[in-house]
Amino acid sequence: PSGTATSNPLLPVVHDLLDEIRALLQAEGVTADKEDLQRKLRRLLQKYTTLKETSFQASINQLLAIECKNHCSVGLDENEIRALWNE
Question: Which long-range contacts (CB under 8 A, 24 or more apart) does 59-62 make?
Answer without folding.
Answer: 60/14, 60/17, 60/18, 60/21
